[in-house]
Write a structure and sequence with these properties.
The protein is mainly alpha-helical. The chain is built from 13 helices and no strands. Helix 1 packs parallel to helix 13 and helix 6 packs across helix 9. The mean pLDDT is about 95.
Length: about 240
């Protein structure tokens, strides 16, 4: 699967200025919105449960964001608002994408076929009621679900590789910047000894996420990858 395209398209609404403005209207900071917006699909659970499901974010950073969000809204309400923002972003950016109906068909097929074992956040998001909106909204939601599926698969790979969350982050594509963004404090471990294990974890994630398209024919898999990459290039031309 075209993991970079899924990751960018499926998470774009979380970084959209209109989503961040909506968060402020709800009384949330951007960080609280991100944590509770993703983790809220699990319901009103303990912060350590959310931290375990998100996996790579420092537990203290999750706890601060989760508690701040709960002072404004219930976690499920935050997740519902973020689902609405996902639909809004999809309608604005994907409705006119080339072959959007076919992208919806294949993406939703992959979501339904994906095995949720060991992936609680993906399972929780897949169980949320999806508004019956147009093709762009449906595509955005399905892409977000595939993004959560791949994120959960990466956690499985990270644990199997014997990496801690902070080790996995500093050895990843964004290096120490991702560790800082996810609330981990320096000093950080040396990257060199971690690179091979991180590459192995990514390979495990790709194989696990790829399970979602095993019901596709070879032609459908090739078409799906092409559609994902074309859509990402259309929406993010630079």
């Amino acid at each position: 699967m075209a993991a970079p395209a899924v990751n960018r398209l499926g998470g774009a609404f979380l970084e959209c200025p209109r989503t961040l403005r909506r968060a402020r209207e709800l009384g949330l900071t951007g960080w609280a919105c991100y944590v509770a917006g993703r983790g809220g699909a699990l319901g009103d659970v303990r912060p350590d449960t959310v931290a375990a499901a998100l996996g790579l974010i420092a537990p203290d950073a999750v706890r601060d964001a989760w508690d701040a969000a709960r002072r404004a809204l219930s976690p499920r309400e935050v997740a519902a608002h973020m689902l609405a923002e996902c639909c809004r972003w999809g309608s604005e950016h994907l409705d006119d994408a080339p072959k959007i109906d076919r992208l919806v068909e294949l993406t939703e097929k992959a979501v339904l076929a994906a095995d949720a074992s060991g992936l609680p956040l993906f399972a929780a998001w897949r169980a949320m009621p999806v508004p019956d909106d147009g093709p762009g909204a449906r595509a955005a939601v399905a892409l977000h679900l595939l993004r959560e599926h791949r994120a959960g698969a990466l956690l499985l790979g990270v644990r199997a590789a014997g990496l801690s969350p902070v080790q996995a982050l500093v050895a990843g594509p964004e290096g120490e910047a991702s560790a800082v963004a996810f609330g981990w404090q320096p000093p950080y471990p040396p990257v060199g000894p971690l690179l091979r294990r991180r590459a192995w974890a990514d390979a495990v994630a790709d194989r696990t996420a790829g399970q979602a398209v095993t019901t596709f024919t070879p032609a459908e898999r090739a078409e799906f990858v092409t559609l994902l990459r074309t859509t990402a290039t259309t929406v993010f031309p630079r």
